[in-house]
Amino acid sequence: MSKINIDEIRARKITDSFDRQAMMQGFGAKITAISEGGVTLSAPIQPHALQQHGFVHAGLTFALGDSAAGYAALTMMPDDAEVMTAEMKINLLAPATGEQLIARGRVIKPGRRLFVTAADVYALKGETETHVAILQGTMVPV
Amino acid sequence: MSKINIDEIRARKITDSFDRQAMMQGFGAKITAISEGGVTLSAPIQPHALQQHGFVHAGLTFALGDSAAGYAALTMMPDDAEVMTAEMKINLLAPATGEQLIARGRVIKPGRRLFVTAADVYALKGETETHVAILQGTMVPV
Amino acid sequence: MSKINIDEIRARKITDSFDRQAMMQGFGAKITAISEGGVTLSAPIQPHALQQHGFVHAGLTFALGDSAAGYAALTMMPDDAEVMTAEMKINLLAPATGEQLIARGRVIKPGRRLFVTAADVYALKGETETHVAILQGTMVPV
Amino acid sequence: MSKINIDEIRARKITDSFDRQAMMQGFGAKITAISEGGVTLSAPIQPHALQQHGFVHAGLTFALGDSAAGYAALTMMPDDAEVMTAEMKINLLAPATGEQLIARGRVIKPGRRLFVTAADVYALKGETETHVAILQGTMVPV
User: Fold this and answer.
1) Tens digit of each residue's pLDDT, chain A (142 residues)
2) Cα–Cα–Cα angle for D70, A64, C84, nearest 5°?
3) Which of B51, B99, C39, C82 could disulfide-pair with C71, CB 3.0 to 4.6 Å?
4) Distance between CA atoms of B5 and B7, rounded to whole angstroms?
5) A and B: number of Cβ contacts within 8 A
6) Residue B86 and residue D140: Cβ atoms within 8 Å?
7) B141 to chain A nearest CA, in Å?
């Protein structure tokens, strides 16, 4: 995992929280990079993540993008805060197929009560990365 | 499963498509009602569907609501069409906890190229049904 | 204006706030009904509210729906609070044309920090009311 | 107006369409830049564009961002196509105040039936540009 501009304690808080997300674990998702205001996740594309056409289910694309955005927000929240999604919107750009799903979340605007966040999700097939979804939404510290 | 105002062949098309959604199967989701323009899904709340606070992961709440909305649209699409989500937005109303998650999808406006849809998601804990999310989005026939 | 289940002071607060919205005034918008958790607005469809095809500009449809949702939230906020939109999503259902635009806003879920709201917008042409847009979004007390 | 990577005829189509948007004209909005897949608009912040707190009404922020995104899509659509908004979501980042509102729209993903677009809106006060809103939505050729 790459860590840029973020101290060890804060990075540990993010990974500990992520490790307790049973659903993310069930999909084999991992944090691959953390920086101040940005988190990258990846997950293998497995049979149990597909929909009826053999593409990744929009639910997993959403879950990975939403988690990346949420943890990006958590990097900038007070030490004792946890993060919850208030609302999130996804636009799907292309069917997701291949070996790996990658989500890059970032903070657009931090705040005391609301964090506006965004995420991009990509599908990796061989050497080709396809942009499959964009997400925009609001995270709240709890 | 309750079927209202929908013929047997159309209902079969919906259930066959749903049965091929590996991710929905993995979460134990079932269709519980189909009508013209409306589909209800339910899924047990299981350990592998949770996030770090022990509530249902927003990804599953989204996936169930999105699927209910998509299949609601499919009830009104041409026989040879399948359905894909173009975009979807979710507002989370309350943490989801209990035994069962229920999603009721409906068509707001059918169209030749775009279907505007909505869904409500509820968590059932004992006798109490809590409204946990609303979704609004666009489905396309493919 | 119809007032249902709402006291005079609260209704006055809403109308006073609305009267200070220069943009709403510029479009001739009026409050036509207030209840606890619901506000209806209407505006004449005038030449300066149109886009390039002669239909109502999505900006006005949005503005009216957003205002109806915001004031619906304000009916349930503390006396000294004002309301601001945190985020809002609109799906357009049909081109808006006719004499009058009507927006019905409602609170889906009140909260201390966030109010989830929705609105429906209709265009009135003669006796025919066409459903032209649905909105879903978040209001915050300030 | 700056024109980059776009031929004269296409640029003329965009400006002609924009000039027929009565609502944009009423707010004094202008196209300030056009490129393949990108359009920038600006509008003076005038008294009739305000809401009850003296900030720019979310309706105008939305209208300007939505128009910038729509015209960005139109730069990549067939010659005989016009553009309509199917759906759009806005997250407001900060109150908009100052002399000028600027919206930069761009195409995220062009398509035959759907264009996924985004826009950023800024308020210019003296030398300071404040990021006031982000938009994400779908445009359709008609």
Assistant:
1) 788 788 888 899 999 999 998 889 999 999 999 999 999 999 999 988 888 888 999 999 999 999 999 999 999 999 999 999 999 999 999 999 999 999 999 999 999 999 999 999 999 999 999 999 999 999 999 9
2) 50
3) C39
4) 7
5) 114
6) no
7) 13
